[in-house]
């Protein structure tokens, strides 16, 4: 086919069925296109609740169903929980001995809120969170993309304090609502309606201006407590104002490129494997089209049952949360390990897809320019220590993979807290030391281009990373 009459750029789009969809990036037309000056640097965090299985070394289940590998930095052996990642061995790093100091005596049902913030939210009493690492990067890079970040979860919304259904928190520490319906996410990213979208934006802006003016006029008539409440409300309104201003800047720019013919956008968690794969695919498409460079997905919330519990049906179990409470039952460690394996398998599928996709700029593949992490704020049986974390990619960002990185002292075999079958010991004293996870976040931000030596009050990065 002759290409001499084609002139395409990455914002070219086609119309049909009442929506506008951008054309995908075609290598054939790269010479005539307007490529990015450099490959985008991306960040994605996947959170899974309830921790992982850590049987004692003396337990017959230890060899196959302990989450953490066995061995050293390079010669580690993956158990059956993570061996699905063996084909990606040189693309991943596994971390142990990292946790947030302020959460180490918080029950695992209440600790997810601080996973990406490191804030001392505590297990009870007054609650105040801080900005999450994804939003630090989103604030830094967000103007370069239509969407500053993509915030997703299986449950959707924000949840409640210490029962968050989102991993993302803004500059004021307020939870950012997560989207959980694939069609809603797809439409937000890739569908526009021309004049309708412009008119809706204008109405929203007008209503917001009126709201701000009206509420500010109340300030002098309110008590000190109510003035604080009003200020918090206005801060929230300001977030909306910022989003509307950004939307105005992008209203005349065609939506980015996607090929979504293979997606079932009506899928729900009751079809768990397909649902999870669809959520990952939406992150992939958002990155591929450069709609955003920041994404979070909370696979499920802590603190009990919910729609996320259905995800365990992918591997034959009625509920995911109960698996952590049933490790004493026959085959209990294997059952929990099988579910953790499913989580790792789908993360690996996503990572492989990034690896298989060349960058439009020619700078390696998408994985080389993406720091992808999957983890939990609990290890064994809701213990808020020794977070099980995997990262993948980031070769062009300076990350060296194919390693099992152990931090702290006294837990070289990852047996601290192992074998727990009751959550009664979550406040017990620990004989091991761990490093603050926030130090890893400093490494990540620096390699994403953010000039900082601190995150959440913790200075410096980890020397091994």
UniProtKB/TrEMBL annotation:
Signal peptide residues on this chain, from the entry's feature table: none
Region entry Disordered, spans: 410-429
A Pfam family annotated for this chain is: HXXSHH
Q: Where is the composition biased (Polar residues)?
A: 411-424
Against InterPro entries, the record matches this protein to:
DUF1552, TAT_signal
Identify this protein by name.
DUF1552 domain-containing protein
Q: Which organism is it from?
A: Lentisphaera profundi
